[in-house]
Amino acid sequence: MNDLPVTPLVRSLPSSVPFVGPETLERRRGGPFRARLGANENGFGPAPSVVAAMAAAAAQSWKYCDPENHDLKQAIAAHLGVAPENVVVGEGIDGLFGYTVRMFVEPGIAVATSQGAYPTFNFHVAGYGGRLVTVPYANDREDPQALADLARREKARLVFFANPDNPMGSWWPAADVTRLISGLPDGAVLCLDEAYGEFAPEGTLPPLDVSDPRVIRFRTFSKAYGLAGLRVAYAVGEKDVIKSFDKVRNHFGVNKLAQGAAVAALADQRYLHEVIGKVKEARERLSAIARDNGLKPLPSATNFVTIDCGRDGAFARRVLEELARRDVFVRMPGVPPLDRCIRISAGPASELDYLASVLPDSLKAARGS
Amino acid sequence: MNDLPVTPLVRSLPSSVPFVGPETLERRRGGPFRARLGANENGFGPAPSVVAAMAAAAAQSWKYCDPENHDLKQAIAAHLGVAPENVVVGEGIDGLFGYTVRMFVEPGIAVATSQGAYPTFNFHVAGYGGRLVTVPYANDREDPQALADLARREKARLVFFANPDNPMGSWWPAADVTRLISGLPDGAVLCLDEAYGEFAPEGTLPPLDVSDPRVIRFRTFSKAYGLAGLRVAYAVGEKDVIKSFDKVRNHFGVNKLAQGAAVAALADQRYLHEVIGKVKEARERLSAIARDNGLKPLPSATNFVTIDCGRDGAFARRVLEELARRDVFVRMPGVPPLDRCIRISAGPASELDYLASVLPDSLKAARGS
Predict the structure, then answer these.
(1) Residue A227, CA distances (Å) to A19, A20, B324 in order
(2) Residue A25 contacts B, CB cutoff 8 Å
(3) Of B68, B120, B253, the CB nearest to A21
(4) Given 2.40.50.140, 3.40.50.150, 3.40.640.10, 3.30.499.10, which CATH number is that of B48-269?
(5) Per-residue pLDDT at A1
(6) Can you give the pTM of this predicted structure?
(7) What integer pLDDT is reported at residue A2 of this predicted model?
C-alpha cells in the first residue's frame, strides 16, 4: 500500500465506506430486516406513474444519458421558477457535495459545519484536504449564529447547514437562515442542504435568490420523491456558480432512467402531496410509539423522528442493537450528546406496527444488559 | 465569475461538456436522427432478461443502492476468476477515470497518452492539474513503444492505453500490451481501457494479473452489454490499489437499478455472444458500405468502424455534417491525421440500410461544397 504512487493527500486518507448499508448488515446477520427504518428512505415508494415510466424506459438503456440533463433541468427550473442555468443535476446530493468541495476547497482551506452533521460532506472535505472546523449543536438544533461566528473567525470558505437537519430532524424558520447568510464572512459560500425540504412546514425554506453567489441550495429526489436508489439530486444557485460544476463533474454521471424518473416524479405533484401526508402521519405514530415507551420524540420537519432514549450514547447503541436483533433497522447520531438518541424513519404502518411490537422488549434488554 | 472563491486550479479550467450528446444535436436540429450511430452505443440493446430485471426492480427504487456494490462485485469477480477485493464498481469508466486521476495526479504530475485518444480521460487529468504529455498514433494505432518511451522520459505517473482503441478501432495482441507494461518506468501506473474488450479477437486482452499494482484494467457494461445509459463499469487490479478507490469515490454513486441490471447482464452470456455476433456482422456491413462508396474502412476490434474518407479533416467533417443533414448521427476523431476519418457504430440492419441509402448523396454534397 505504501508503495503506491498516490498523492500525499490520498495516502493520508482512510479507505472507508461512510455508511454501513442495511444490505451489509443483512449479509452479516444472515437475513433481511422486517422493518427498514434506518436510512431515511421513503418506504411509501415512488409514484406508480414513475415506476411505470422507468419500466417503459428500461429497454432504452443502451443509449447514453444526456450529459446536459436537459429535460430534467428544464423541468426543475419550471417547477422552481428559476432558469435552467441556475440548476445543476448530479449523482445524489453526495455527488454534488463532492463537486462543490472540489471547486472551493484545497489543502488547508477551512470549512465550517456542526459537530455531528452530515458525515459524507465531511468525507469530501477530508478528501480534498480541507480543514474542518465545527460548532456543537445547541438544544438539538444546528446553531446558525455560532456557525456564522465560527466561519468569520476561521475564514471558512464553505459553510454547511442543513435545514431541516439530519440527524436531529430540527429546523429553523427561513428568517434565521437568511440571517445566517447575511452573517457569513466575505468569500464564504453556504452549502444549504434542503434534502428534507419538502417535508418542512411552510416558511422553513427561504425564497430562492439565484442572484446570490454565496448560497448553493441542494435538493434531492431521494427523500420525498422516493427515489433514493436512482442517485439524482440537484443544486440551485447563481448561474456562474452553477456553470462551474461543468468544470469538474462527471458529465455522464446521472443515469438515463434516473433522469426520466425524476422528470416523471416532478410531474406527479399529487402523489408527492399524498406521500407528505403519509409521512406526517407516520411521524406522529413514531412519536406516539416513543412516548408509549417512556422515550422522548424530538420535533421533526423531516421523514424521520429522532428519539431521545434518556441516557448516554452507549445505551442508545444498545437499544439500536436490540432492535436490530429483532429485525428492525434504525440508525443513530454519531456524536455526543446527540448520540443519546436513535433515529427512526417514517415508513408504512405495517413496519411501524412491528416496531411498536418489539420496542418494549428491546428497551428492556438494553436496560438489563 | 472571477469573484467566485474557487481554487486557482478550478478557476483555470473551462466549463465544458466533453461530448455533445445526440440529444443536444436533436434539439438543435429540431428533430430526431433516423440512425443513431455516433456514440458507440449498442443499438442491439440489452438482453430481454436484463430489461425484465430492471422493470421488476423499478418499484424498489426508494431503497438506497448498496454502497459496497456487493452483489455486483461478487458476480464480476466470479465471472473473471478474481477476488471481489480486486474489483471496484463505478459510475461508468468516466467516473472511474475521475477517481483514478484524483488518486494519482496532483498539479504538475505528468500523465502520458496518445494524441487523439479518449478525451474524457484528458478532461480529468486537466481537472486535477496534471501535465498531459502525448505521442502520436502510428499507422492509425496507438504506439505502445513510443508511449513507454514517453512515460520514461517524462516520468509519467499515469499512462493511458486503450486496447482495443477508440476512436480508431485498432488493437494490439496481448503480448504487445505486456511489453508496454514491462517498459513502464518505476512509479508509473497503466490505465488499461478495455471498454471494447468483449468485441476483440481472442488473444487481445492480456491475462488478468491482479498481483501487479502497476496496471488497472477498466471494463464497462456500456458497450457489449448494451447498458450505456445506466453508468456502470468496473476496474480490476491489485487489492490495495482497488481499496484506495474507497478513499475518494462517491460510495452511493452507482444506481440500484444499474447494479441489478449489471448482475443480470453478466448472467446472460448467451445473449452477450449473440450480440457480439451481430456486431461482427454489422462491422462487415459497415465496411462493405464504405468500400461501395470508395472509402477505406479500417480494421476494427470494437463495435464501430472508422472509415478513412481519403482527404483531410475538413472534408471528413463535411461528410459528417451531410450525414447529419440526412438524419444520420456519426462522430469523428478530433485530431489530425486521425480526423480524415469518420467513426460509425455498429447498429441494427435497418439503420445501416438507411446509412447506405444516404451516404452516396452525402459524399457528393461534401465533395461539391
Answers:
(1) 18, 19, 37
(2) no
(3) B68
(4) 3.40.640.10
(5) 44
(6) 0.97
(7) 53
